[in-house]
Amino acid sequence: MQKKVICPGSFDPVTLGHIDIIRRASRMFDHVVVGVLNNVAKTPSFSTEERIALLRKTLDGIDNVEVVGFDGLLAQYAKDNNITAIVKGLRAVSDFEYEFQQALTNKKLNSELETVFLTCNSDYMYLSSSIVKQVASLGGDISPFVPECVHDEILDRLK
Ligand code: ADP
C-alpha cells in the first residue's frame, strides 16, 4: 500500500522550517499532502489562495508533494483521503504539550491515523510564521527565514 501522509498547518506564510519538514517527509513517504488550514477562528495575514500559491512555487519540482486547502476535522480529511499519518515538526518542549493533545485527539477520532514527529532542524528551532511577520513589520531582513523564490512576494505583503 502507498504511504500517503499529511503535513498540516497555517503556513501564514511558509518558512524554511516548514519546507525542511515537508522535504524530509517526501523522502520518507510515497506521497505528501501539504494541508493548508482554512481556519475561520484565526484571521490569517495571507489568504488561503496566497498561502497555497507560495507553497506550490517553493515546492515545485518535488513530484510526490501536493498542496491543498482544507476545512474541518483533520482526522476526517485523513479518513476520506486514505491518509495514514500526520507528519509534524517539533521545535521545542513548548510545542510538545499541544501537539501531544492534538495527536491523542486525532487518534480517538480516527484510530487508523498515526502522528509522526520529526525533530526540527537546529537551524530553524526558533523559526515560526509569526517571527517572519514580526521582523518584516519592523523593517528587518527576512531572507534567513523564508524560501528565496518567494521572499519578495512575502515581503511586499508584510511591509
Ligand atoms: P507556525 O505558525 O508555528 O509556523 P504552522 O501551523 O504554520 O505553525 O506550522 C505547521 C507545522 O509546521 C507545525 O505543526 C510544525 O510542526 C511545523 N513547523 C513550523 N515551524 C517549524 C520549524 N521552524 N521547524 C520545524 N517544524 C516547523
Keywords:
globular, alpha/beta, Rossmann fold, binds adenosine-5'-diphosphate, 6 helices, 159 residues, 19% strand
Description:
This protein has 159 residues and is an alpha/beta fold. The chain has one domain: 3-Layer(aba) Sandwich (Rossmann fold), CATH 3.40.50. The chain is 42% helix and 19% strand. The protein has a 5-stranded parallel beta sheet with strand order 3-2-1-4-5, sandwiched between helices. Helix 2 (48-59) links the parallel strand 2 and strand 3. It is globular, with a radius of gyration of 15 Å. It starts with a strand and ends with a helix. The model has no long low-confidence stretch (mean pLDDT 95). Adenosine-5'-diphosphate (ADP) is lined by residues 9-11, 15, 17-18, 21, 88-89, 91, 120, 124, 127-130.
Mean pLDDT: 95
CATH superfamily: HUPs
| Main pleated-sheet profile | 5 strands, parallel
| Order of SSEs | EHEHEHEHEHH
Structural class: alpha/beta
Strand order, largest beta sheet: 3-2-1-4-5
Number of domains: 1
Strand content: 15-25%
Q: Determine the CATH topology.
A: Rossmann fold
Q: Give Rg in angstroms.
A: 15 Å
Ordered list of secondary-structure elements with their pairings:
Blueprint: E1 4-9, H1 16-28, E2 31-37, H2 48-59, E3 65-70, H3 74-80, E4 85-90, H4 93-109, E5 114-119, H5 129-137, H6 151-158
Parallel strand pairs: 1-2, 1-4, 2-3, 4-5
Adenosine-5'-diphosphate binds next to helix 1, strand 4 and helix 5.
Question: Could you give a quick summary of the protein structure above?
Answer:
By secondary structure, the protein is of the alpha/beta class. 42% of the residues lie in helices and 19% in strands. It has 6 helices and 5 strands, in the order E-H-E-H-E-H-E-H-E-H-H.
